[in-house]
User: Which sequence fits this backbone?
């Protein structure tokens, strides 16, 4: 077994306290403008922008540095239509048969239903997969650890990068999502669908729910 190899930390940049305050305040203000959007424009977004956003996601920390994520960026209208049709079948069953009343009540302020036109309208839909295992060259499976945590962090960075690029996004989790393995050609024995991320420009008449974020006093404690 090879011994671990370490390198000097050459990427760290220490900042004066005043600069730290300035930078984090600007970043917080920037993120406070982020909103989840359900009405998208069909305006094209360059593939190069999506590539850079995915590279940002790939900087996330992960358990044992196994990087257990995989992204499928879809702009093909035929593939997006297949995803919409499959997602709407699952969502119709959810809203009309499987969802308990308290869940539907929690969703009511958001105005959501089984109709997911944005899956076709938006220029990009990103399928995010969680890699439970990788396949080694000799055919054996390599188990990954802390996969939910790792992929969740990467997804958060991806959403922040999309916002930084001047675009909007929507997290979409039809349940179940196994149809994504088949449509997108991902191995079901190694990966499970984690989320669909819809990406693009907002529609000119886009509207968002009248909701507010919790203040710091409700989301954090200092000891």
Assistant:
């Amino acid at each position: 077994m090879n011994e671990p190899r370490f390198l000097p930390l050459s990427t760290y940049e220490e900042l004066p306290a005043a600069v730290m305050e300035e930078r984090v305040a600007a970043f917080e203000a920037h993120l406070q403008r982020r909103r989840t959007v359900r009405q998208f424009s069909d305006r094209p977004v360059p593939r190069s922008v999506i590539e850079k956003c995915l590279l940002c996601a790939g900087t996330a920390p992960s358990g044992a540095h196994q990087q257990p994520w995989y992204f499928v960026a879809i702009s093909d209208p035929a593939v997006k239509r297949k995803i919409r049709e499959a997602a709407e079948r699952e969502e119709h069953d959810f809203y009309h048969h499987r969802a308990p009343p308290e869940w539907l009540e929690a969703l009511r302020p958001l105005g959501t239903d089984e109709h997911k036109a944005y899956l076709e309208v938006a220029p990009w839909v990103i399928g995010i997969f969680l890699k439970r295992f990788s396949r080694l060259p000799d055919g054996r499976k390599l188990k990954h650890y802390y996969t939910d945590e790792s992929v969740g962090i990467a997804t958060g960075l991806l959403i922040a990068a999309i916002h930084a690029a001047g675009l909007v996004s929507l997290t979409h989790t039809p349940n179940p999502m196994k149809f994504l393995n088949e449509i997108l050609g991902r191995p079901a024995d190694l990966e499970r669908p984690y989320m669909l991320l819809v990406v693009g420009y907002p529609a000119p008449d886009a509207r968002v729910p009248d909701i507010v974020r919790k203040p710091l006093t409700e989301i954090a404690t200092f000891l």
Observations:
- Strands lie at 69-74, 124-131, 133-135, 141-143, 168-172, 191-200.
- Residues 43-202 form a domain with the NADH Oxidase fold (CATH 3.40.109.10).
